[in-house]
């Protein structure tokens, strides 16, 4: 029996620079909703690189689908487009140090647990990566952190959580 059901999110878009930023925000919001905040930066970077590749290389159009799937302890992020050509990975040594492109899939490989590409029917492909996901139950996430033994031994020491000052409400600096 599966103890944690699959969770799924799909976004269809044109891989244009303005839309890529919107998809990053959607991915971030979805991962927050699933209580996977620690994965946001890596997932957003990975999806940005995959969408940038669609924008730069996909033919005949830039239409694609981004899919997030959380199954048990694994988040899979995939981008499906209509170009059947599979991506080629240039080695880091093969890329000129002043080149402005050619490192995207190497970055995806660096931030992910696994990644790959596969044909999708006769006229498309799917490029994907996975991240290990430990879902934090909402009731556990809302609990205040436990006090450490050092807190009890040294109560006069200020901890990071105590650094927010208790001050008066902000006032406008504008005269008038």
Automatic annotation (TrEMBL):
The keyword DNA damage does not apply. One of its GO terms (molecular function) is ATP binding. Pfam families: HATPase_c_2. The keyword rRNA-binding does not apply. Keywords: ATP-binding, Kinase, Nucleotide-binding, Serine/threonine-protein kinase, Transferase. CDD domains: HATPase_RsbW-like. Residues 14-130 form the Histidine kinase/HSP90-like ATPase domain. Signal peptide: none annotated. This is ATP-binding protein. It comes from Streptomyces phaeoluteigriseus.
């Amino acid at each position: 029996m599966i103890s944690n059901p699959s969770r799924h999110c799909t976004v269809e878009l044109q891989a244009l620079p303005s839309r890529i930023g919107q998809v990053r925000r959607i991915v971030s919001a979805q991962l927050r909703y699933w209580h996977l905040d620690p994965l946001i930066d890596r997932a957003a970077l990975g999806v940005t690189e995959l969408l940038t590749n669609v924008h730069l290389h996909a033919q005949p159009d830039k239409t694609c689908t981004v899919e997030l799937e959380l199954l048990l302890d694994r988040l899979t992020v995939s981008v499906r487009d209509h170009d059947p050509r599979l991506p080629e990975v240039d080695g880091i040594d093969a890329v000129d140090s002043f080149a402005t492109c050619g490192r995207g899939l190497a970055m995806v490989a660096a931030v992910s647990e696994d990644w790959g590409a596969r044909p999708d029917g006769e006229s498309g492909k799917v490029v994907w990566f996975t991240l290990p996901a430990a879902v934090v139950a909402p009731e556990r996430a809302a609990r205040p952190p436990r006090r450490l033994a050092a807190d009890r031994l040294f109560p006069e020491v200020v901890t990071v959580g105590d650094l927010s000052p208790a001050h008066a409400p902000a006032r406008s600096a504008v005269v008038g």
